[in-house]
Amino acid sequence: MLYPLPWTSETGITKNGERFVASTKREVLQFMPLKKNKARRAYIFFPLFFLSIILVSNYLLSLDPKKELQDYFLRNWTIQSGLLLNTITALIQTQDGYIWVGTGAGLSRFDGVRFKSFTKQNSILSSDSITSLYEDANKVLWIGTDGGGLYSYEQGLWKNFTMKDGLSNAHVRTIIGDWRGGLWVGTDYGLNLMSRDSVHVYTEEDGLYDNIITDLCIDNWGTLWIGTMQGGLVRFNEGVIAVYGYEDGLLNLSVQSLAADSEGNIWIGTLEALYLLKSGDGIIRSVFGTRYTPFTSLLEDNQGNLWMATMADGLKRMSGDTLTGLSTDEGLPDDFIRCLLIDRDANIWIGTDTGGLVQPRDSTMTNITRENGIPESAVLAVMEDRQGFLWVGTRNSGLCKMKNGRVVETFDAKTGLSYNRVRALFEDINGNIWIGVFEANDIALKIENISDPDIRGSNQFPWFIPRLCLNMRLNGGVVKKSRIREGSFFYQFF
């Protein structure tokens, strides 16, 4: 929805749920509710000249390890937000920027505004119970299910791999890829190594102490580490299997989660405590303060902090030797956390058992002005693309492409734009960036594409153009603006 207020308007939302607010009064901000069924990744702004961009939340700042977890605002998505189910079983961010959410009722793709769901009713999935997600180097999304085997999803095409194709069991628990291009799939009956032409299965007959594979990780040296339901920790290196159990310091053999950190250490989450196997010494030590806590997921962020999901004690974070937590006492909707994700912007995503999807967010506001490199502070359009770049359209100085709060590229009349006044931005399904530019008198709108020089400045308007405006009719090449009441406009094609 567009808000023709006299001094401010909400201009957009990123895939991470962050809001851009533009204002003609730098000292005043007004936050307006964004209706879920109206939000688009294309934005056009009518009567206002904006003097600054305010970026709300953590677009520029990841979570501060020095800040207490309870000091963060928690954003929560549930069934009411479009989720299939409030039980989140798997999370991943693919290279195109989407967040994929596995649930017990199907798979959803999240663009930061809405969820697109895939179930047995609209896909080839034979089981809606999603257990694991992994994207390989070829941008193929692999989906593990409980009872339906393994699926791949690539550019809208689905494939299913079952026991008929050599998979050892239809109940898939965990998936990971190695540096050779092999795909490792842990199931309720053995570990599968899938290559292009074959599937090799490892079970107790090959040296495992348990056939139920709960989690997998690969360390800095390419060694595969295997968690089992009752058989402890397994190291698999060049076909050689080594098992870690009671005699090695592991007091509980039910390994539920694994993580290899940047220093080559292996973190082991069991149903009883968290353990650490330091690189090089082969000794497993219990981590102080974690006894009697079942750990379901472990992740290291880019600052070396370890994030831990627990079955009954919420979220924990270890920064150095300091262990902090976040639970229902501090606003978390559920203390049973099933999975975690750290996205490319260092945001943490939390998948709970009954409370839906949660993201801790910093409420810090960052004012982006000329000091950050934009040519002027009068901003008319803002958009984030799928690669995480921020596009900023100005009133008289063209278009800026930004990353991490700094301008990396500019486009204006000297470098290909017809005019310098940018009023609309859109990214299509192929990743092309479309720009609506106006003449100085604000009468004619021209749609341009900077991603494809062959259609730059074209009058072949894409399908989304009618969605850019409140009221318009598509008849041909030029857009004319008309005033229907004070502060509001509509557009006609003629």
Give a quick set of tags describing it.
Methylamine Dehydrogenase, Chain H; six-stranded antiparallel sheet; four-stranded antiparallel sheet; disordered C terminus; 494 residues
Structure at a glance:
The protein is mainly β. Helices cover 0% and strands 44% of the residues.
Description:
The strands form 10 sheets. The chain has a 6-stranded antiparallel beta sheet, with no helix packed on it. A 4-stranded antiparallel beta sheet has the order 1-2-4-33, with no helix packed on it. A 4-stranded antiparallel beta sheet has the order 5-32-31-30, with no helix packed on it. By secondary structure, it is mainly β. The radius of gyration is 25 Å and the shape is globular. It has 2 domains: 8-61 and 364-493, no CATH class; 69-361, Methylamine Dehydrogenase, Chain H, CATH 2.130.10.10. Strand 8 and strand 9 form a beta hairpin. The protein is built from no helices and 42 strands. 0% of the residues lie in helices and 44% in strands. The relative contact order is 0.12. The model is unreliable at 1-61 and 452-494 (pLDDT under 50). The chain starts with 7 loop residues before the first strand and ends with a strand.
